[in-house]
Amino acid sequence: MSFNIGLSGLRAASKDLNVTGNNIANAGTVGFKQSRAEFSDVYAASVLGTGKNPQGSGVLMSNISQQFNQGNINYTQNALDLAINGNGFFQVSNNGAVSYTRAGYFGTDREGFLVDNFGYKLQGFPVDDNGNLQNGVVGDLQVQTTNQAPKATSQIDTAFNLNSTQKSPATWQATYDAVLASSGGNSGAALAAASDTFNPTDPTTYSSSTSLNIYDSQGNAHVMTQYFVKTGANTWDMKVLVDGRNPADPADEPPQPYVMGLTFDSSGALETVTDDGSGFFTVDPATKKVTLNAGTASSDGWIPAISDGGTPATWSANGALANPDGIVLDFSKSSQFASAFAVNSVAQDGYTTGELAGLEIDDTGVIFARYTNGQSKVQGQIILANFANVQGLTPVGKSQWVQSFESGEPVVGTPGSGTLGALQAGALEDSNVELSDQLVNLIVAQRNYQANAKTIETESAITQTIINLR
């Protein structure tokens, strides 16, 4: 009996050494979870029970359980390295064979799919052709590496403040006064003559100005400049040029701007917007929004132009189009207060062609592609899976596990939802092996092995003594 007891002890100590050695060997393996050898004692049963004073029959390995406690988060320089801070596993697919891992080595393959270092595809919620997340539809995540098509500007939101204490421009005022006197007080003639003095190269013909880029259908950038001319108490003219030219007639010389009248109330809020009757603009009196129409062969509006680079330059249509519905200018939040001219906010929704510049992943797993045109686009959302009994998962190597009957069904969700952990991009989760503990366990397992070997040696000596009896 003692031989079998000692032999069971040797086997148990050997398995303990194997488990501890495996932990030590994987101390530097990303996403590795250490294991623990669990043993139980053995008693031989008899027909009438074990009796009052049963003797043990040795030791048996009852289980090798993995410890899924959190490993340290180690930050890297790779944006696609991922770490889970909390519960959950990445779900990956190898041609349909699903497995789970905590090792966040991810990158892209030649087709743009997000894959781990074994080529298994990371799973998540993909996007449709319009860039909308398909929540609940789990599939392979793919990054679109093609260029982002340009978008013609359709909306401009701007808010500016015009200085109520500012006087009319010097040249404008001088012309107005001269014509008013010579025409016997005809203010209409004086206003028309003063308006004709506008020259974008002469700051004495306007009060303030501001510019921003707008884009045509081919992604070409054009500079739209707004010039403000004070024409009286609470009244201003806003003159608009695109690329320094008349938006509807690029060849016009000298440039004749679009003109809109702005009227502010006594509190400094924008009250009315009027156009010059040219048909290039459409004004909505209720919202005070102005639409710069798209120019075509049959209608007036902005026609994108290009310069030949000469001196003087010759401008002609560049073959692109404006947004077919025109460009809506919303400056309803603009004001006229007794402070310096300032543009408080400005935004437009057009952009030029963009090339993929990089990827970003937030803590909820949403993947953003950044483009050289300053735009970003959602490429999908990473999912995590968790189990009722994570120790019931079956390890299959490569720092991966597969579902088993004991683990239960996976609960899938986005990072940070429910009990699932948060996602950390640009980081990896280190092994949770504590080397100092494992080295001590190694010593203990070695002592156990030696002690059980001593048990067998002692039993052998006793047996030899009995054999030597004469």
From TrEMBL:
GO cellular component, one term: bacterial-type flagellum hook
Subcellular location: Bacterial flagellum basal body
SUPFAM superfamilies: Flagellar hook protein flgE
Segments forming domain Flagellar basal body rod protein N-terminal: 4-33
Keywords: Bacterial flagellum, Cell projection, Cilium, Flagellum
Pfam families in UniProt: Flg_bb_rod, Flg_bbr_C, FlgE_D2, LlgE_F_G_D1
Residue ranges of domain Flagellar hook protein FlgE D2 in the record: 194-351
Residue ranges of every copy of the Flagellar basal-body/hook protein C-terminal domain listed in the record: 424-469
Record field: transmembrane: none
Sequence ranges assigned to domain Flagellar hook protein FlgE/F/G-like D1 in this UniProt record: 83-135
Single GO biological process annotation from the record: bacterial-type flagellum-dependent swarming motility
Principal subcellular localization: other
Keyword Electron transport belongs to the record: no
Role summary: A flexible structure which links the flagellar filament to the drive apparatus in the basal body.
Family: Belongs to the flagella basal body rod proteins family.
Name assigned to this protein: Flagellar hook protein FlgE
Organism: Stutzerimonas kunmingensis
